[in-house]
Design brief:
Layout (H helix, E strand, L loop, with lengths): L1 E3 L9 E6 L2 E8 L12 H18 L5 H16 L12 E10 L2 E7 L3 E6 L5 E3 L3 H15 L3 H12 L22 E6 L3 E7 L1 H8 L6 H11 L1 H14 L7 E6 L2 H10 L1
Antiparallel strand pairs: 1-10, 2-3, 3-4, 4-5, 5-8, 6-7, 6-9, 9-10
Helix pairs in contact: 1-2, 3-4, 5-7, 6-7
Length: 266
Amino acid sequence: MASDAARHGRTNEDFTGAVPTAAVLIDGAGIPGSESVCRHGVAWYACRLGGSLLGLLSHALDRSLSALLAEAIEQVTDDHRDTCDVTDPISPSATVAVLRVSGGSVEYLVLGDSLLVLDRADGEPLVVTDPREVLISRSYEPALEAATDGDEYQRLLRDLRSRRNQPGGFWVAKDDPRAAEQAITGSCPTSELTGAVLLSNGAGRIVDRFRLADWPEVMDALAAGGPADIIRRVRQAEARHSVAADDASIAYCTELGESGRRLEDA
């Protein structure tokens, strides 16, 4: 695993963690002013959600990933429901990627714009994404760019935020456990895979924003140089193109079949 804050001195709002048969990546999201409704902050939310989810993954082996994510969201919401306005639209939220080895299968879940890539032994990598937030946000870009005053700009932003965790909108982990039901999920045999990687959208820029590599090349680079090398290349591209940096995190998983055998022996 590797993780790097957007800039020196800034709190990293990503979380990565693993247990022997599962890996979790959380990409925290916040809106300016959120400290007025939540005293804990985005990094706290991301770490608390990731820790709760890892704890559930380590012992609740017979429950679906969606059910475990729903319980983790509920646990974290309960942790600060009495001190913070958890239902406010600007309170902390997060996107989620989870991978779990279960016997001879790999199960996965993606909620929001984090990424999960399965490196298949025969054929192109399988890229698991949840494009809803990106597609909806892009539909607002022309109007936001054309807004002639601050009031109109803020109205458009409020309208965009109102589509979060709503039918026909986009879904993230926040205060409503039912959002987990909207996650992208699936599974495949471990025998078909040589590895897998979970990435925050800041790390995924190497492909979707800067086009420095395609996904087969990313998997090759991970095998050769590890996740820190991918983040280094993203940082160089951000500096070269004068693009504001984003927190970037990667969890690279190998020997998936061996993890399954350890589970069977337990």
